[in-house]
Design brief:
This protein is an alpha+beta fold. It is built from 2 helices and 7 strands, in the order ααβββββββ. Helices cover about 30% and strands about 25% of the residues.
């Protein structure tokens, strides 16, 4: 009977390890979309502030962004971003990074979209 207990204990341990590994992989994937911003240490071209801290950058759907004279407009918020404050996205998507209070740090636009 000790072999049965040992086998059951091993299965429970392997199951727990598997669940932890899946959870860790999900966390890595969740942060992977904008790792290029952190890796390149982008800064706001006007203020010099670092663009990306943990959990402060999000994709802005292209359908929510409009080219306007001298910049961009996020349609859902009405926010205008001047060209001089716009950085080029490396993944072909629009991104907005913000401070904890919601104020924009950086805005990334795909190359060739202005």
């Amino acid at each position: 009977m000790s072999d049965a207990r040992s086998s059951a204990g091993t299965r429970v341990l392997l199951l727990a390890i598997g669940i932890m590994a899946i959870g860790a992989a999900g966390t890595v994937l969740a942060h992977g979309d904008h790792d290029w911003m952190r890796a390149d240490s982008f800064r706001n071209p006007v203020t010099g502030e670092h663009c990306c801290g943990e959990n402060d950058c999000a994709v802005v759907p292209g359908s929510d962004v409009e080219v306007v004279p001298d910049g961009w407009k996020i349609l859902s918020t009405g926010e205008w971003i001047p060209d001089r404050e716009t950085l080029r996205s490396k993944d072909g998507r629009f991104w907005r990074c913000h401070q904890p209070n919601g104020v924009r740090r950086c805005f990334f636009a795909p190359p060739g979209t202005s």
